[in-house]
């Protein structure tokens, strides 16, 4: 049984899962994160790669970890090209590497469940997910 079920393993779903674990609201074993892709943030990575994004549009403090300057601390290369402009927009590669590191740190794979959910109803071919829900998050 799961305390939290999060639909969507993109940036927002991963941010919610990370916040719940790191803030002590729950443990990873009480979370089920459901997404149609094999890896967290797969759609984000595919789409940003397709358009050739080099830097994010958001400033350095917008990322999936709970500490605002976590991404800036993660950048240890000292390369001035890691961040762009006045708001220090991070390089996409750095953002993705940092995100992967954050997700590994709290072992998101334990919560990951690759499935497609349509209209909030599971397919008859997939096993049921039993949850004792206090909260649920639907992230699109």
Automatic annotation (TrEMBL):
SUPFAM superfamilies: FAD/NAD(P)-binding domain. InterPro entries: FAD/NAD-bd_sf (IPR036188). It comes from the Bacteria. Gene3D superfamilies: FAD/NAD(P)-binding domain. PANTHER family: L-ORNITHINE N(5)-MONOOXYGENASE (PTHR38663:SF1), PTHR38663. This is FAD dependent oxidoreductase domain-containing protein.
């Amino acid at each position: 049984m799961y305390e939290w079920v999060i639909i969507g393993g993109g940036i927002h779903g991963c941010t919610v899962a990370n916040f719940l674990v790191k803030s002590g609201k729950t443990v990873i074993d009480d979370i089920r994160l459901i997404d149609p892709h094999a890896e967290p943030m797969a759609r984000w990575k595919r789409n940003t790669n397709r358009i050739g994004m080099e830097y994010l549009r958001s400033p350095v403090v917008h990322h999936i970890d709970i500490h605002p300057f976590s991404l800036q601390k993660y950048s240890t290369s000292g390369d001035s090209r890691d961040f762009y402009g006045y708001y220090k927009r991070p390089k996409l590669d750095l953002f993705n590497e940092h995100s992967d590191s954050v997700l590994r740190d709290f072992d998101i794979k334990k919560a990951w469940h690759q499935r497609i959910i349509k209209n909030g109803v599971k397919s008859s071919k997939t096993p049921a997910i039993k949850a004792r829900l206090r909260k649920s998050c639907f992230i699109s």
